[in-house]
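Objective 1b: paired records.
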Amino acid sequence: MAAVTSPETSPQPRVYFQTPGGTTEEPETPVRKQGRVTVKYDRKELRKRLNLEEWIINQLTDLYDCEEEAIPELEIDVDELLDMPSDVERGARVKDLVVDCFKPTEVFVSELLDKIRGMQKLSTPQKK
C-alpha cells in the first residue's frame, strides 16, 4: 500500500511503499555459482610474448622486404625454441626457418635469441 504525506508535514508530497502485512519473507535472489578458472597465465609473460611476436613480424617484414601478408609461410615457435637445450640449437633452428631469405639473418637470429632468453614457456596447465 502507498501512503502519501500531507503538504503540511513536508514541502513536497512523498510516497512510501509498505509490504503487505503478514509476510516477512525476503525476496528470492537467484543463486550464482562461482566459475572456475581452468587456464591461468601470467599477464606479464603474455605481454612479453605479444611484444616478441610483434617484433618478429616487423623483423621478418624487413628481412623479406615485403608486407606482413606477403611473408613466406613460416612459423617461429617460441615454445619449441625454449624447449631446446642450447642457444646453438635454437639459432640453427631459426636459421633453417629463414633459409630462403636473401638478406643476412645473423643479426635477427642473435637478437631473437637474446629476447627469448629468460622467457617462460606458455603451456596449458593440466586440469585437476
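Objective 1b, second protein:
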Amino acid sequence: MGSSFRAFLNSPVGPKTTHFWGPVANWGFVAAGLADMKKPPEMISGNMTAVMCVYSALFMRFAWMVKPRNYLLLACHASNEAVQLCQLSRWAKGNGY
C-alpha cells in the first residue's frame, strides 16, 4: 500500500470517518434531483425543493467551517444546491411565476 493512500485512509476526512461517508451518501440527493429533471414540472414539490435548497446552503457553510474543512461535503451540497435551484426554477415556471 502506498504511503499517500495510507495517509488518505488514516486522515481526519478519510474513509474511516463520517466526514467521508456522510458526503458519499448525500450524493444520492444529487442523483435523485438529476433523475427528476425528466419528470414534468407539475410533479415537483415547491416546498420540498425550497427546503432542500436551504438544507444544502446550510450544510455548505458547515462543510466550510468545520475543522478539518470538508471539501467533499462542500462539493456534494454545492452540486445539490445547483440541481435544486434548477428544479425550483422549473417548478416556478410550471406554476406561472
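The radius of gyration is 16 Å. The chain has four helices and no strands.
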